[in-house]
Design goal:
The chain contains nine helices and no strands. The radius of gyration is 16 Å and the shape is globular. About 65% of the residues lie in helices and about 0% in strands.
Length: about 190
């Protein structure tokens, strides 16, 4: 199964470029998410935090998660719609997370994009009865299930059982589901 969604590769390339830049510059300090008490009008952080990663494991995990989760959507939904829903869902999740954890010093990771897309897939399962169902036992299904489980047990820094990881993933999943349902109702997704 090869994922043919160009926008997925664009997001992965952006993640990789920013990861490399963050190793040699202070770009992560300028773009990472923060609690609302530390934002000081730098609202771009709600968007840009989704494109940064704490380490190589974090980056590779999210690249794999994005690649396989969107594999189900390949040929069913426009790549630009997938990318926009994932990025919008991740941005809204980062905003809400910042309000829920106002003193957070730093947050980053592309998992909010991936979990928002998984939320879109969940909405499709409920509302798009004519679409082929998401199937476990397939390559995309097994990898996505593994990503969901491991992504909530370990955070990007390999810290086990971090409740904030579960909180932001749940937020982005629910927001992705709501955005997906709105797009299905508006006939953007069929």
């Amino acid at each position: 199964m090869k994922n043919r969604i160009r926008e997925v590769y664009s997001i992965i390339c952006l993640w990789a470029v920013l990861f490399i830049l963050s190793r040699f510059t202070g770009i992560a300090d300028v773009l990472c998410g923060k609690g609302i008490e530390h934002i000081h009008g730098e609202y771009w952080r709600f968007l840009t935090a989704s494109f940064l990663h704490t380490g190589l494991f974090h980056l590779i995990s999210n690249c794999i998660g994005l690649y396989f989760a969107t594999g189900y959507l390949d040929g069913k939904v426009s790549g630009i719609v997938i990318a926009l829903l994932g990025i919008a869902g991740g941005t809204i999740a980062n905003l809400l997370f910042s309000l829920m954890t106002p003193s957070a010093g730093s947050s980053m990771g592309g998992s909010v994009i991936v979990f928002a897309i998984i939320g879109v897939i969940a909405a499709m399962q409920i509302m798009c009865k004519s679409q082929e169902p998401f199937r476990f036992g397939t390559r995309y299904g097994n990898w996505t299930a593994g990503y969901i489980i491991l992504g909530n047990l370990l955070n990007g820094s390999l810290k086990v059982g971090d409740i904030s990881t579960l909180k932001i993933h749940l937020l982005s999943f629910v927001i992705g589901g709501i955005l997906g349902a709105a797009c299905i109702s508006g006939k953007i997704i069929r």
